[in-house]
Specification:
The protein is of the alpha+beta class. Helices cover 44% and strands 14% of the residues.
Length: 531
């Protein structure tokens, strides 16, 4: 049952105040990792924020953190939502009867293809923006129904603009989004919305801006999500737009989650201290270099030499009263410590540590063109571990949520005449992205280790008898993320086994003929006569 608007606004204010402490941490992270990322409120000079075009990098002297943050965003998109690859497929769940699986999978494959078609043009680009905030712990993307030309509209939302609230079971049940909009854009954003008299009057001013709150809350009794849109400072009961959804349209993946908290923690938190230290070290190194080149000078106040008008360049001639005498020279260089050689070692070591913490250290280059199955599995396992063990959370809160929201939007637009529930019981979303393959690397390792033991102890002849190689190898292909069309079916495997058996039989006949003694002359016949 939806709460009253008076309570709605109070809940939003409470959630926003509790999230303010988290936003202070994000400000510190943005300062050293991505000073360009600011919410619309923080970019507004009217609220004391910095205006567009203001320099935000004067305090940065080392780019290790900035490069790591943007590399993280690109790598996460390539791992989970590759722009030119299929990254999931809908399949029959475990409770579907075996004789119905093939037919259901064929129907779901069409839905999978349609979902990928509507997601590919725009979502990977928006996801790249969202991953920049996931680096700080929490990403945010909102899905809405668009037009037939662009059925699914995806919008990356700065994490500074949202507040998450956990429900009684530790899941996110409330999402409050505050953003400033031009008043002239409100009617285009909500064409069927209801605007109060005060708000309608403000909308006549084309340059005016107003902060709009969009709250998405889960109604446990109705088992649905309720959206409410209202303007801050407007009448208490005034609501611009309300809508309910079967599936949550918000995608809010979190990298790490501390028990009891709703907002996530990211790799930026882990490396912040080291990034600050390297930045300060680099600042001192650059200052020391400036002192070594230019120096610090002392001058006598003789009323002749004016340092404000003196030109510092090679072969410059200065007019002075004296350059020596009992009082010393008029101007001389002041010696300062300038040996900062050890700083290079410190900075390099700290950069290596930062790159490891930010997962910015790639796997070593492949030296040999041919790799063993054990080496391939080991590299996949390293890639899985380097993701910090957050793969399961990302797969559920990002990919599965994206699939659920996309299918729901297509059903609302009547592009799908279904009422599909991706509950992993009747219908499941199997993630096929490269990161999912690395998450299944342990299964590949176990299978290859087992086959290596059989080969080492019993020889290659025993492998087909001690292991179901014909079933194991196709499964390994699936675990590695290969497309199903390149993996042989059971019928194709049966034909392959028959072909191999036929070839082996032919080889045995040829070997037997080669070993047979040549016929004697008396036993050879031509036209029935011996010679």
């Amino acid at each position: 049952m939806p709460v009253k608007m008076e309570d709605e606004r109070a809940d939003c204010a409470d959630a926003w105040n509790k999230a303010s402490a988290y936003r202070r941490e994000l400000d510190e992270i943005d300062r050293f990792y991505m000073p360009f990322r600011k919410s619309t409120s923080e970019r507004s000079p009217e609220t004391g924020g910095q205006s567009e075009g203001t320099s935000r990098t004067d305090h940065l002297f080392d780019a290790t953190g900035v490069v790591g943050a943007f590399n993280f965003a690109g790598q996460m998109v390539a791992d989970w939502l590759p722009p030119f690859q299929d990254f999931f497929k809908l399949e029959a769940g475990p409770l579907v009867a075996e004789d119905q699986r093939a037919d259901l999978n064929r129907q779901l494959s069409g839905i999978t293809e349609m979902a990928h078609a509507v997601l590919r043009p725009r979502v990977p680009l928006v996801a790249h923006e969202m991953m920049a905030d996931l680096f700080k712990g929490t990403g945010a993307m909102y899905l809405s129904a668009g037009t037939k030309r662009q059925p699914v509209r995806a919008e990356a939302v700065p994490v500074n603009e949202i507040a998450l609230v956990n429900g009684p079971f530790g899941e996110v049940w409330d999402i409050f989004w505050k953003r400033k909009y031009k008043t002239r854009h409100l009617e285009a954003k909500w064409p069927n919305g209801t605007f109060s008299k005060n708000l309608a009057l403000r909308m006549k001013n084309r340059t005016d801006e107003i902060e709009i709150t969009q709250s998405m809350r889960y109604d446990a009794q109705e088992d649905k999500w309720l959206l409410r849109v209202y303007a801050d400072g407007d009448e208490t009961d005034a609501v611009i737009w309300t809508e309910d959804f079967r599936v949550n349209r918000w995608i809010t993946p979190r990298f790490f989650v501390v028990p009891g908290e709703s907002m996530g923690r990211g790799l930026a938190h882990l490396g912040l201290a080291s990034v600050r230290g390297v930045n300060k070290t680099r600042e001192l190194v650059l200052r020391a270099a400036a002192f070594a080149l230019m120096g610090i000078w002392m001058r006598r106040n003789d009323g002749v030499f004016n340092p404000d008008t003196a030109i510092f360049k090679p072969l410059a001639m200065w007019t002075v009263a004296s350059t020596g005498g009992p009082l010393g020279p008029s101007i001389q260089r002041l010696d300062v410590p300038n040996n900062f050689d050890i700083s290079t070692i410190v900075v390099k070591d700290e950069r290596d540590q930062i790159n490891k913490m930010l997962l910015n250290d790639d796997l070593p280059e492949l030296q040999d063109s041919v790799r063993s199955p054990t080496e391939i599995a080991a590299r996949l396992r390293k890639a899985a571990k380097s993701k910090g063990g957050a793969g399961a959370r990302i797969s559920i809160e990002l990919v599965t949520a994206l699939v659920q929201g996309t299918v729901d939007v297509l059903e609302v637009l009547r592009m799908l005449n279904t009422n599909l529930s991706i509950d992993n019981i009747l219908t499941k979303a199997t993630i096929t992205s490269p990161a999912a393959a690395s998450q299944r690397a342990d299964k590949v390792q176990w299978a290859t280790d087992w086959m290596q033991i059989i080969l080492g102890t019993m020889g290659p002849q025993a492998l087909p008898y001690l292991a179901k190689v014909d079933k194991l190898l196709p499964d390994i292909g699936r675990w590695l993320g290969n497309d199903e069309q390149y993996i042989p079916t059971d019928a194709e495997m049966k034909e392959f086994k028959q072909l191999v058996a036929h070839m082996v039989a032919q080889m045995q006949v040829q070997q037997a003929q080669a070993k047979a003694p040549p016929p004697q002359p008396g036993s050879q016949f031509i036209n029935g006569s011996a010679f």
